[in-house]
Amino acid sequence: MTYPLTFNQLDFDAIYHDAPTNSENKEYITNMRMSEVSVEGHVPLTPHLRGIVFRTQSDMQTFGYLLEQAGIACPYKLIVERARGTLFLARALYLNDLSFAGNTISLTFNFPTDFSPPDRIYKVFINQTVGHSNKTYDKSVELRATTFNVTNYDPDPLGVWFIKLEDQLAFNGRLQTQASELF
């Protein structure tokens, strides 16, 4: 669920269920098990929360950028998970690495081990905003290799990137422009 609920509206049977019971409730149970509850002013984070764990470096950079845009400082340690065999990493298409050199953005993916479409067709949305200029790539593409490149972007380091994979936020922020090592 993507909207705030009151505590007594949460489906705790699904949240604490060990696993889906059939194919019809698989997505629902999986999503509910990732439910997060925050009761503002009633459940203090300090001293219990000591760090925030991210799936990838791109996720952590997006978190930092969004906090910066909101003017919020994060006092907690930020960590990228390194255990690659977890369910946390197996269920979705996500970015392993993201780089930008010249006018080309390179996205390196981790493909889902479960729920991967047989035709490997994925929706990829990449938008770069530099000043008032926008450049957008918005297509469903076959992804067989783990790296995907898109060219004709502005090499301006002040550009802001917004990337979605399968309609889910994969990255939002600035990328350091890297000089080509080949030329």
Describe, in plain words, how this protein is organized in 3D.
- The chain has a four-stranded mixed beta sheet.
- Helix content is 16%, strand content 33%.
Instruction: Using the coordinates shown, work out and report the CATH topology of the largest domain.
Output: Immunoglobulin-like
Helix share bin: 10-25%
Q: Any idea of the CATH class of the largest domain?
A: Mainly Beta
Specify the biggest β-sheet: 4 strands, mixed
Radius of gyration: 19 Å
Proportion of strand residues: 25-35%
Q: Give the total of beta strands.
A: 10
Question: Keywords for this structure?
Answer:
183 residues; alpha+beta; Immunoglobulin-like; 2 domains; four-stranded mixed beta sheet; four-stranded antiparallel beta sheet; 10 strands; 16% helix
Please outline what is shown here.
The protein has 183 residues and is α+β, with helices and mostly antiparallel strands. The chain has 4 helices and 10 strands. The longest helix is centred in the middle third of the chain and has 14 residues, at 57-70.
Task: Record the SSE blueprint.
Layout: H1 12-15, H2 26-32, E1 51-54, H3 57-70, E2 77-80, H4 87-90, E3 94-101, E4 104-110, E5 121-130, E6 133-142, E7 147-150, E8 160-165, E9 168-173, E10 177-178
